[in-house]
Amino acid sequence: MSSAPNTAQVLVEALPYIQRFAGQTVVVKYGGNALSGTEHADPLDVFAQDIVMLRAVGIRPVVVHGGGPQINAMLDRLGVKSDFRDGRRVTDDATMQVVRMVLTGEVNPSIVSAITSCGGRAVGLSGADDGMISVVQRDPSLGFVGDVTGVRTAVLEQLLDDGCIPVIATIGVDAAGQTYNINADSVAAAVAGALGAAKLLYLTDIEGLRRDVNDATSLISKLSAAELRALLDDGTIAGGMIPKAESCLEAVELGVPAVHILDGRVAHVTIIELFTDAGIGTMVEKG
Questions:
Q1: Could you read off the pLDDT of 22-44 as tens digits, one per residue?
Q2: pTM of the predicted model, to two decimals?
Q3: Which homologous superfamily does the CATH classification assign to the domain defined by 23-285?
């Protein structure tokens, strides 16, 4: 019984945040690395609980997912070599087939199933479905790697209006019908901007951006878009974090008020960030 007052206090603390975001869209990018696990629970089940809770209190969540580790594992099993340049996977035809198979046949259904098991109405989608995410080739040397040029939101908005939770696999298509591998962070930014999202959350396997990648105490809790750009320009942010940082800037420029980088391995990190005073991770704002 002694925990009852604490539970009540948590609910009271959450109330103004629930009221603030009710009816608004929140895009959550669930990175494949976040699937590596929370400390005490199944990570996907915990994530699904959070997403279903958002929908239950009137928030309109959209899930955009990657699957880098799962793609790596499948490529290794098949003996297909994979290279990266500035955090982006070089994608030839064989690799593209594996990307499509893993994202749409493994990762997407598993997220949809987890949300459904928690009582949510999830609908799995691919960005290539009906040309929802249109792309152009980023660089011929990267192969079938695309940059987002547009997001058709009609299906997403209809699903949200119907109380459903869209779960989007990050595959795009060009004008000729060729499918492309797209950086999931970039897709999340484009989707958030196109839907006029109130927030964009990136769930990954780090606690946020650091001024020194090797020093956990150098976590940056909050910064402006201009400050983030400066960290990119001076090389503080490098390697695999470059696409994520660039996507934060893209989302802010597209009108998303706040973008958050959070450690998806922390149980219920989405709820902690949205509904408590404790805010964690790194938040990027325009000003």
A1: 999 999 999 766 665 555 568 89
A2: 0.92
A3: Acetylglutamate kinase-like (3.40.1160.10)
